[in-house]
Each structure stands twice: as structure tokens, then as C-alpha cells.
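QA checklist item 7 of 12: single-chain prediction sanity check.
[x] sequence parsed
[x] length recorded as 233
[x] structure emitted
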Amino acid sequence: MNPTHAIPWLVFSWGLAGGFTHCIGMCGVFVAAYSGLSSQGSARRFVHPERHVLFHGGRMLSLVTLGAIGGLVGDITHQWAFAQGAISLVAGVLLVGLALGFAGIIPWMRIPEPDVLGAGGGFGRKLFVRVLKSQNVWKPLMIGLFVGLLPCGLTYQALLLGALSQGPAQGALTMALFCLGTIPGLLTLGLFGNAIFGGLLTRPNFRLGMARISSALMAAMGVAFLMRGWSQF
């Protein structure tokens, strides 16, 4: 069996693990902005479910668009088998390194994530803040569109996989699977807040365990790309 056939499932599983750790920590404030979470992290359960649909629909649209662009750019290099093999080997090494960085084993390999809302006064930031303060019915959709485009280590790594997927359609599919994987964690936060399972979502041991699972899945994808690259020579 070709190891790269397992990559789509690994991408989804990786997003699932990352959604319960990284995404809750980084995007929880945006979920609170549209879902009715209180400052104590409690949620008004099942109020306005359409807000969650709009938010995640916006994220999906942004991420799938990025995936299609990444796949289109990456497709240029896939016209030559040797280049494809070499790039797969480099990507495999990079993914394993990033996995070790995400796990905290090699801290300098962790992708930095700038504080977009607190950095500078650019047009994009001002527009995002305006959206967050809006009372428009389409607010969750606009937040989702912006969140999908924010600097994010997990998104960057998923885009790397999208660029290696040999075409815009495959790149879009890769990012769609990644987005689908991240939804359960953010949706759980939006529907139940921190009340679920006695505050499980923010317990250090739970988040550390999920982060390790996410790192292991990322490393597995790196190994799959290394094997694919090696087979091209």
C-alpha cells in the first residue's frame, strides 16, 4: 500500500487533535465573539446554531481557497518526477521537524504566530476589529472568513501539504479535510463553553495529550512524504 494514500486521513485526524488544543487556545476568543460565551467560559447552549454554520462555513471557504492556490502553485514543480521526489523528501524532513517543534522538543522549529489584533493599525486589522464589534446577522460568516486567513502554524503546515498535493483540486480537498477536523473542538467550545466534562477543554493534561497526538500525526505525515520522495529515485 502506498503510504501517501493515508495522508488525507492523517490530515483530518491531525486537524481533529489540533482543534481541541491549538485552535481552542488561539481562536476561542473569536468563537466567543459570535456564540454568546460569557467571560467565565459558559455558553448559552444551542442558541442560534446558524451562527456556528456561518462561522465554520466562512473558515472552510477561506481555507479551501488557500488550498486551491497552494495546489496550483505546487503543481508547477510536480511536472518533473525528480523534482517531485526531491520536494517530497524536503517536505518530509520539514514536517517531522515542525512536529517536534509543535511538541516543544525543538522549540526553534515552532512556527511563530504574530498577534494580529495587537500588532499595528493596518487596514486588515481595523476591518477585522470592526467585524468583531458588528451586530450584523452575517457577523459569524465574516469572522470565519478572517479567521481562516489569520497567521496560524497549523494552517501553514496544512498549506504545505496542500501545495504538495499535485493540483488545485487536491489542494482544496486537503484544506477541506483539515478544516473539517478542526470543527469538533471549536464547535464543542461554542456550544458548551468550558462546562463540558467539568472543564476538560482547558485542563493542562488533556490539552498536552492532544498536542502530543497532533505532533505524532504530523510526524507520521512527514514519514509518508519521505517514503514517497524516496520511491521517486
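[x] summary fact logged: The mean pLDDT is 77.
[ ] second reviewer sign-off
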